Amino acid sequence: MKNSFDIAVFDGDGIGPEITRPTIDILGKLAAQSTYELSFTDCPAGAAYYAKTGESLPKASMDVARESDAILLSAMGLPSVRYDDGTEISPQIEIRKALTLFAGVRPVRIFPGQRTPLNMPEGREVDFVLIRESTEGLFYSQGSGEVTQDEARETLLITRDISEKLFKFAFKLAGDRKSKGVGPGRVTCVDKANVFRAFAFFREIFDGIAKDFPDLVADHAYVDATALWMVQKPWDFDVLVTENMFGDILSDLGAGLMGGLGVAPSADIGLDNAVFQPCHGSAPDIAGMGKANPMAMILSGAMMLEWLGTKHNNAAMMKDGTRLRKAVEDVIAHGDGLTPDLGGTGSTSSIGLAIIKELAV
Question: Does the keyword Ribosomal protein apply (predicted)?
Fold first, then answer.
C-alpha cells in the first residue's frame, strides 16, 4: 500500500491562488494527523503566466504534472488575456488532452440544508454523477477550427477507443455506487442520436459496452430532454455519460441545482493520471477581495483523496476524503458565515477556518 504522494499544484488565475491556499492547508492538516504523506509542487501556468512569458503551459510544469500522483488545478483563464485567434487561455484543456483524461466526473448532490432553486418534494434526494468525455467531442478542434469571411466550421470527433474507455468507467462507477447503497446501478447515455450520425455511433458503442455489465441498467436520453429532467426530476438520475460539449453545459446546470458553481467540484480522470479542479472560472472581478468561495476547490481536494485512496488501497485517504466532503456539507448546512455567492458575508479564509473547525484538525 502506497503512503507517500506527490501532488502537482496549478494555483491558476484570478481567485485561483486565493482558493488554493485553504485547500492545501486543509489537505496538509489531514495528512499530518494520518498515516499518509502529501508533497505539493507548484506548477506555473495560465493566462497571467502567458501574459508575462508568452507561454501558457511550460514544459517543466507539464513534466511535473505527468509524473505526479495527482494534479490539483485551480481556476484558470482571464477574459482579458487571449490567444491571437480570440480564444481564451485554457491549459486545463491542454492537460486533459495530453494525459488522455477522458472521464470528466461532475457530482451533483443536494443534501439536507443545502440551498437549491428546486422545490424538492419531501423524501426525495438528489445524488447523481455526470460523466463528461473530456478529450474529444466538439472540443476536438479547439483553436484550429476553419473560419472564413462567410462561414465557420468546427470538427466533432468521437472515437471508439476513447468511448469504450469512457463507458467502462461509467459502468464501473455505477457499480461502485450501487455496492455502497448510493443509486440503483443505472447508466444513462445522453446524446442526440436522432439527428447526428456521430451520436448514433456513440450510442452504439455504449450499448455494446453495456452488455458486459448485465447486473446494471443501461438506458438512453436525448440531451435536450435531459436538461428538462434535471430540473423536473433530478432524483431519478444515477450516472449520466455524455459528449464533451453536452457535458460542459449540463454540468453547469447541475451546479445551479446545488446552489452555484462555488460548491461544484470536478475531476478529469484517465487510466494513469487525474486532475481535480473546481467547475467555476477565475472570477477576476472579485480577485484579491477575500470574497471567493473555496468550497468547490476544497471538495475537489476531497475527490482527490478518495481517488488516490481507491487507486492505492489506502483506507485512511478514502476516509479523509469522505470526512472532508461531510465537513464542507456541514458548514453549508449551518448557513453561518457563508460567502456572498451563497448569500452570506463570510470570506475565503473564514470558510477555510470553519471547515477546519468541523474536521477538528
Answer: no
